[in-house]
Write a structure and sequence with these properties.
The structure is a single chain. This protein is an alpha+beta fold and 175 residues long. The chain has one domain (5-174). Helices cover 39% and strands 22% of the residues. It contains four helices and seven strands; from the N terminus they run αβαβββββαβα. It has helices at residues 5-42, 68-71, 134-156, 171-174; strands at 50-53, 73-74, 80-88, 97-108, 111-116, 123-126, 166-167. Strands 1, 2, 3, 4, 5, 6 and 7 form a seven-stranded antiparallel sheet that branches.
């Protein structure tokens, strides 16, 4: 018995949805590798919590912890974006404060395109070079050092509310 055109359309839709889910999973796996690799590269203490949050959404103070899959959203330019909250402190552990790093990722052909923040420069990373991300991590490190050298005071005094790669997280995370 032959299929109706409607059944063929439904099957095509099912295949397209599967392809999109596979694409989302590929980007999520790369994002997870990127964050874990960065944390390892920086020598971040394992007892410091790493939290993922969705960007640009009101956070529910009762649900501050998201899995990466729950924090990723797609923007108008087809970038998957998410926030990573890392806690830093003065040497010895005093005065801990969370930092929000915003990552934007999409895959185009054999390259993952990564932006550090919504207005960041697009950084292509070939899928075959995923194991050699030291230059990328060095760029992230430089951005963090620049934040503390030039932008921290404005962030603390809430004078700079423009979304950037590194920000202080929303108040809901600080409580």
């Amino acid at each position: 018995m032959s299929k109706t055109k409607f059944e063929e359309i439904c099957e095509a839709y099912s295949r397209a949805r599967k392809a999109f889910r596979d694409y989302e999973e590929t980007c999520r796996d790369f994002a997870r590798e990127l964050v874990y690799g960065m944390v390892e590269y920086f020598g971040w203490p394992q007892d410091r919590e790493i939290t993922y949050i969705p960007l640009g959404e009101e956070l529910n103070p009762n649900n501050r912890f998201y899995a990466l899959a729950g924090a990723m959203r797609m923007d108008d330019e087809a970038f998957w974006h998410f926030g990573v909250v890392l806690t830093v402190s003065e040497p010895g552990g005093s005065y801990p404060t969370p930092l929000l790093l915003s990552f934007f990722i999409k895959k185009v052909g054999p390259h993952f395109i990564v932006k550090l923040g919504p207005k960041g420069k697009e950084i292509p990373i070939h899928e075959g070079r995923r194991n050699d991300l030291s230059p990328f991590y060095d760029a992230v490190f430089a951005q963090i050092m620049n934040f503390f050298a030039r932008k921290y005071l404005d962030a603390v005094t809430r004078q700079d509310q423009e979304p950037d790669f590194i920000m202080l997280p929303p108040q809901a995370l600080l409580e």
